[in-house]
Amino acid sequence: MIGRLNHVAIVVPDLPAATATYRDTLGARVSEPVDLPAHGVTTVFVELPNTKIELLHPLGEGSPIARFLEKNASGGIHHVCYEVDDILAARDRLKAQGARVLGDGEPKTGAHGKPVLFLHPKDFCGTLVELEQA
Amino acid sequence: MIGRLNHVAIVVPDLPAATATYRDTLGARVSEPVDLPAHGVTTVFVELPNTKIELLHPLGEGSPIARFLEKNASGGIHHVCYEVDDILAARDRLKAQGARVLGDGEPKTGAHGKPVLFLHPKDFCGTLVELEQA
């Protein structure tokens, strides 16, 4: 069912510093920061040859990643995102197997303008999993 | 400098259960478990079209991931591994920029039989980074 690893998301306390780390220290290609107010994050995309790293920083009040940063002051890996062909079929298959889909179970529009869902970390090896319709 | 994302490593408390989650629930292709006594882990490789997920479980006494599992009973993402063309050149560039290389700074032979190094999480956005010579 799952296809490509679309991205690994890393929450960072200082987005310019993290961008410099990936660009200058690790020598990767990075994007300009992109504000995503609907998601409560500012993102910098690190382009690797086979996938992306997304550096995330809270944007505005009530950002969904604010609490993660409180608990992980240096930042840390927040989630992995796997691609699926059909997000509703994927959701229904997962639910039929007892896996918990976060929120109301309806796909939202993700950072790339595509339908996404998040799965409960306790059902996936302690890992927050995002599914994105490819 | 960094190239492909070689893998994401996820430490899991129950390797057969985690394998079943990735194989049956998420529908991915998974390997048989592979014991790596020199690394103190048993690994299952999850093959995605563009990269790998490595499920890790402690093997033997003094496994380097035992403490992680004590702190993260449900498991969690342990590290990301980026490929580099020349690991000694990469190390020297990183050290020249003040980044900390773990251990004695000499590459070890990693899970894929290639030279690897680990970088200090505090210097890389709270993320343990492995470099593997491609």
UniProtKB/TrEMBL annotation, chains A, B:
Its EC number is 5.1.99.1. It comes from the Bacteria. One of its GO terms (molecular function) is metal ion binding. SUPFAM superfamilies: Glyoxalase/Bleomycin resistance protein/Dihydroxybiphenyl dioxygenase. GO terms for biological process: L-methylmalonyl-CoA metabolic process. Pfam families: Glyoxalase_4. Residues 4-134 form the VOC domain. The keyword Ligase does not apply. InterPro entries: Glyas_Bleomycin-R_OHBP_Dase (IPR029068), MeMalonyl-CoA_epimerase (IPR017515), MMCE/EMCE_epimerase (IPR051785), VOC_core (IPR037523). Keywords: Cobalt, Isomerase, Metal-binding. It catalyses: (R)-methylmalonyl-CoA = (S)-methylmalonyl-CoA. Belongs to the methylmalonyl-CoA epimerase family. This is methylmalonyl-CoA epimerase. It comes from Thioalbus denitrificans. The lineage of its organism: Bacteria, Pseudomonadati, Pseudomonadota, Gammaproteobacteria, Chromatiales.
